[in-house]
Amino acid sequence: MAESVLVRCPVCRREHSYTAPVYPCGCGAPVTLPLLGSAAPVPIRHRTWADSWVSVRCGACGSLDEWPQPELGCDCGTSLRMPVTPAGPAGTPEAAQPLVVPRTGQPVRRPAFQPVTIRTAQDAKAAAAQYLRWLGFVEVRVTERTPASGVDLRGPDVVAHVDPSTAPTGLRDIETLWLNGLNESAVAVCFSLAGYVRDARLRADELSLPLFVLDLTGTPQPVNDPADQLIRTVH
């Protein structure tokens, strides 16, 4: 569990107790963002996409991933960017994490998947929900989502977006879904009838987010390595 640190706002001098966020690595181990204790927080004057991410290496598997830059909101209205220890070379993680054997870490044999023929957008959601249940996720249900949420399916430990349109799924859908997964401490999975634009594919690979393409028989096909890994594991 991440430790709390005392942070002083450089603008109003108020002190805050801050706990670094913990994110799930693709290997299943928790990744705690290693705060750089020797550096002071920096007031955020303006935001850029590049400044919103930080590279941190998993202490369990050694993989280097990008995670949201930790921030703290002060009572005076100032947003502070919390400095993070730079990622070290592979094999020398900057903040060793305990090795956690995930629930998804063992191969499993499943019966043949029974697809749902897709004729409507609702059929696509039903097919994806059935596939997630087949993978082992429990209590997966179709949600009445708001357009901003991007979540069409939800279970206790999974959220999914289902794109039934004829246009390839874009980058924004992938990033929105991933953030929803982080906020809910759930696995995020995306299904699309028309595939994905190149930027969306690349970003999903960086975020270890499984991507599937649905054909009209209702059978999902994996299109990236995280999807292949999800199929090989049990939940």
Which features would summarize this protein structure in a list?
235 residues; alpha+beta; Trna Endonuclease, Chain: A, domain 1; 2 domains; 6-stranded mixed sheet; 4 helices; elongated
Q: Could you say which overall geometry the principal axes of the C-alpha atoms support?
A: elongated
Q: In oligomeric terms, what are we looking at?
A: single chain
Number of domains: 2
Structure annotation, total helices:
4
Termini, distance in Å? 23 Å
How many strand units?
Answer: 15
Q: SS-based structural class? A: alpha+beta
CATH architecture of the largest domain: 3-Layer(aba) Sandwich
Secondary-structure element pattern, one letter each: EEEEEEEEEHEEEHEHEEH
At the third CATH level, what is the topology name of the largest domain? Answer: Trna Endonuclease, Chain: A, domain 1
Q: Which class of the largest domain in CATH terms?
A: Alpha Beta
Q: What's the arrangement of strands in the largest beta sheet?
A: 10-11-12-13-14-15
Give the overall pLDDT as a whole number. Answer: 80
Radius of gyration: 20 Å
Q: Report the uncertain regions.
A: 91-106
Q: How helix-rich are the residues, as a percent range?
A: 10-25%
Q: Could you describe the largest sheet, including whether it forms a barrel?
A: 6 strands, mixed
Q: What is the beta-strand fraction?
A: 15-25%
Organism: Streptomyces iconiensis
Protein name: Restriction endonuclease
